[in-house]
Amino acid sequence: MKTPSRRHILTAFGAAVGAGALAACTTEAGPSTSPGGGQPDASVGGDGPHTSAGAIGRHPPTSDVVADGKQALERLLAGNARFVAAQEQDLDEGIARRIAVSKGQHPFATILGCVDSRVPIELVFDQGLGDLVVVRSAGGALDRSVIGSLEFGVTELHTPLLLVLGHQRCGALDATIKALDKPTSHPGKLGYLVDTLAPAVRQTFGKPGDRLTNAVHANVTHVLAELRQSPVIAPLEKSGKLQLTGAYYELDTGKVTLEP
Ligand SMILES: [Zn+2]
């Protein structure tokens, strides 16, 4: 069991302070709180009501929290470092944060991940309500809804980063390898998933190393290439307004590493 984080305490306290202070929060705090979550707030400690931004929560829903994809990536990796060290600070789903983002959102990254129960995106990056646009499908398989959802994140919500996150021991890619080794019929739409993931898996046939790990990395590369075909995503990347990045999540350590 995890004890309540400092930020949980902050947000609970912030809710009691009220909406007036909340408004101040959205204007006072800002980039200084990111990337990396910043330093502990000296105003915390239960010594009376505060109206400072820090007393409410440290990531207001403002669009200027990150300037570009590079900063967005730094913020994600800093959050992951906290997750790895079990020192989460910013996983803010508290009442004050919920109120703060209820009228608008300015997420700073769009992420495509797998449905795997062990890779919950907000948790592994230590981010809270309103921080991330998350799209998940088995193996990160792309279809029209997935691509459209990612396009929504980068165009309508203007995130400067689009991250594709593969992960260690991905069951969907493992099933695809097995299906290609020994063709079988799959019920429902499972066959569709295998067919969608198969092109990336085939690229790894005959390569040295662990087959599944190879397939995960190849799939991230494949997905990124596919997304760069999008008439919505491609021009954004070309203009420098959007950064596309691949990454790999290791189940054993919780660590996210960027793909070369
Ligand atoms: Zn998976």
From TrEMBL:
The keyword Amino-acid biosynthesis does not apply. SUPFAM superfamilies: beta-carbonic anhydrase, cab. Residues 27-62 are annotated as: Disordered. Keywords: Signal. InterPro entries: Carbonic_anhydrase, Carbonic_anhydrase_sf, TAT_signal. It holds the Pfam family Pro_CA. It comes from the Bacteria. Residues 1-23 form the signal peptide. Belongs to the beta-class carbonic anhydrase family. Catalyzes the reversible hydration of carbon dioxide to form bicarbonate. This is Carbonic anhydrase. It comes from Kribbella pratensis.
